[in-house]
Design a protein that fits this description.
- There is one protein chain.
- This protein has a domain at 72-124.
- By secondary structure, it is mainly alpha-helical.
- The longest helix has 30 residues, at 18-47.
- The chain has 4 helices and no strands.
- Helices cover 76% and strands 0% of the residues.
- Helix 1 packs across helix 3 and helix 1 runs parallel beside helix 4 (97-123).
- The protein is elongated.
- It starts with 17 loop residues before the first helix and ends with a helix.
- It has helices at residues 18-47, 52-60, 63-90, 97-123.
Length: 124
């Protein structure tokens, strides 16, 4: 007997396994990084002015700047780690169910840790 697809999707009751979460967050982080490109180019242009680096530093130490830096650091770190995980999966490394779940948990834990290291280097 074929399994029936759900009639409705209650997002509060759907529990994705870690590989599913990593996949969705990989897409979200990629979109955030793509949206950050114009702002990054503007900051690069601003940094070439004589007082531009001081203005950028002031902006990065404001509350919205810190929030933006946290979001971009997480996006970069998660996207990097998840991308490496997907490359290994393409090479048939860690393709089993247990290994895939384990590597997804490593990505979910490693993304914030790598982001914290990036932010520590930026702000300390």
């Amino acid at each position: 007997m074929a399994r029936r697809a759900p009639v409705f999707l209650d997002l509060r009751r759907i529990h994705l396994p870690p590989p599913g979460r990593v996949s969705i967050l990989h897409r979200v982080s990629g979109v955030l990084l793509a949206l950050a490109v114009p702002g990054s180019l503007w900051l690069l242009q601003l940094s070439l002015r004589p007082d531009g680096m001081a203005a950028i530093a002031r902006g990065l130490h404001s509350p919205p700047g810190v929030l933006l830096a946290v979001g971009l650091a997480w996006s970069l770190s998660h996207h990097l780690l998840a991308g490496l995980r997907f490359l290994l999966l393409d090479l048939d490394i860690g393709i089993g169910r247990a290994a895939s779940a384990r590597s997804a948990c490593w990505v979910l834990a490693g993304g914030p840790l790598l982001a914290a290291a990036i932010l520590a280097r930026l702000y300390l």
